[in-house]
Design goal:
32% of the residues lie in helices and 17% in strands. The protein is of the alpha/beta class and 479 residues long. It has three domains: 125 residues, Orthogonal Bundle (Fumarate Reductase Iron-sulfur Protein, Chain B, domain 2); 164 residues, FAD/NAD(P)-binding domain; 163 residues, FAD/NAD(P)-binding domain. Helix 6 packs across helix 9.
Length: 479
């Protein structure tokens, strides 16, 4: 790079957010992005490593990050966009919601602070849209083959976009009323404005991709119908089953799965639902407890605070992560360490090493959580192994609403039996090869449907990879 010492001389600029008092009044995106000059200087911190671990080990999409950073530093945004869009189907999504695995593998972060790769990706993408570099590119010719994609989340959309660019006629089937999957109905607008999804969706329509909504394959439309009308099928249904908590008192009112809560609020923001519908799903005036310490739990925290919760507590059975990278995840691995989201900074109590034992209620409605503190045993390098309950540590947390954000489990046999005729792994995911090929001829699978719950960036990478497998199966589209 032109400024060889900048990774030493220039400090990293971390994410900045709108003031808490302001952002709690709306559902607009919370992040404030630095000015161009600041980000150019941040790009100059890139060391242009001979072996760029950010690209090879960090990024599932294999974005050529040092080359993109150099183009940003030199204000060659058209070149930067060409490089980025060549490997990343939807950088406008990942630059907003990806935890930036690339930054965890950045060489500058080994002893100092990593390059702000995610913010630079956002700059490149939004500059490309603003400057008109992002245009629909329909295939010059079609190859005569048709592919159906079941599921319009990030994996399905990535597979559809790549197959379409190869000349296939692609139809995406989605059981919900709108396209986007978890992007639309799981991730709050304050992290990903739905206009960003709609902007990309219009491009895909202009490029010739067909979308069919309110279509539940296996119920509204049979798999046999798809097999008769399409040359290949891609299953990308995500992870439909949330992990529940089967403990005494679970039947009480006021206890909800996280996506019930988040999805409803997203539908209110988009106008699909009225705020007057299902008032019990509102956190207004309630003491809320979120069980689960991951990103979905954090999203519940931010949403509950915007709805007017009087208090929000987030509890997690896992131990509190260390402030700095754990020895159990040495560079360039994704570091196990404490992470504080924008929602946490808005006013939330967080507690770790807590196991929920039962729910207590009154008149059929939850009023408290009965919990116990646990003690963890760690491996020599600091990895949590197993826990035991601490005798006499039982306590109660008041709760008018409880949100279960404990991740997702695999498909149940009845979910797919008679619908797709595919086998499941022991953990409940669709069984297929590493290339996404299932035991059903011409049927492929991608994303969380195969891997279990993971990151949006990994779902996009999986969708792109399975598109290549479909293309190989169909002989490159040759008739």
């Amino acid at each position: 790079m032109a400024k060889d010492r900048n990774f030493l001389d220039t400090k990293r600029v971390d994410a900045v957010y709108r003031p808490v008092a302001e952002r709690l009044k709306d559902y607009n995106e919370v992040e404030v992005h630095p000015a161009l000059d600041v980000l150019k200087e941040q790009a100059s911190r890139c060391m242009s490593c001979g072996i760029p671990f950010c690209h090879g080990m960090g990024c599932p999409l294999k974005n050529v990050i040092p080359e993109i950073n150099k183009a940003v530093m030199e204000e060659r945004f058209e070149d930067a966009w060409a490089l980025l869009s060549n490997t990343s189907s939807f950088p406008e999504f990942t630059s907003r919601i990806c935890p930036a695995l690339c930054e965890g593998a950045c060489t500058a972060g080994l002893d100092l602070e990593p390059v702000t790769i995610r913010q630079l990706e956002y700059l490149v993408t939004e500059e490309a849209f603003k400057r008109g570099y992002v245009q629909p590119h329909a295939p010059v010719s079609r190859n005569g083959k048709k592919v159906a994609v079941v599921g319009a989340g990030p994996a399905g959309l990535a597979a559809a976009a790549r197959l379409n660019s190869m000349g296939y006629m692609v139809t995406v089937y989605e059981k919900s009323a709108k396209i986007g999957g978890l992007l639309r109905y799981g991730i709050p607008d304050f992290k990903l404005a739905k206009s960003v999804i709609d902007r990309r969706l219009q491009l895909m329509v202009d490029e010739g991709i067909e979308f069919v909504v309110n279509a539940d394959i296996g119920k509204d439309i049979s798999l046999e119908y798809l097999k008769r009308h399409y040359d290949a099928i891609v299953l990308a249904m995500g992870t439909p089953n949330a992990r529940d908590l089967a403990i005494p008192g679970r039947e009480l009112e006021g206890i909800y799965l996280a996506l019930q809560f988040l999805g409803r609020q997203n539908r209110i923001v988009s106008g699909e639902e009225s705020p007057d519908d299902a008032q019990e799903l509102s956190a207004f005036g309630k003491e809320v407890v979120v069980i689960g310490g991951g990103d979905t739990g954090s999203d519940c925290v931010g949403t509950a605070l915007r709805q007017g919760a009087t208090k929000v507590t987030q509890i997690e059975i896992m131990p509190k992560p260390p402030e700095k990278r754990s020895p159990s995840t040495p560079w360039p691995m994704w570091p196990y360490m404490l992470r504080t989201s924008s929602s946490h900074k808005e006013g939330c109590e967080r507690e770790w090493s807590i196991a929920t034992k039962s729910f207590a209620g009154k008149d059929g409605h939850v009023k408290a959580i009965q919990a116990v503190r646990v003690e963890w045993e760690f491996s020599p390098d600091g990895r949590p192994l197993r826990f035991t309950e601490i005798p006499g540590s039982q306590f109660e947390i008041k709760a008018d609403m409880v949100l279960l954000a404990m991740g997702f489990v695999g498909f149940k046999a009845e979910d797919l039996s008679g619908r797709f005729n595919v086998s499941l792994t022991e953990r409940g995911w669709v069984k297929c090869s590493c290339a996404g090929v299932t035991e059903q001829n011409g049927v492929f699978a991608a994303g969380d449907t195969v891997s279990g719950p993971s990151l949006v960036v990994r779902a996009i990478a999986s969708g792109r990879a399975v598109a290549d497998a479909v293309d190989n199966y169909l002989g490159g589209g040759e008739k």
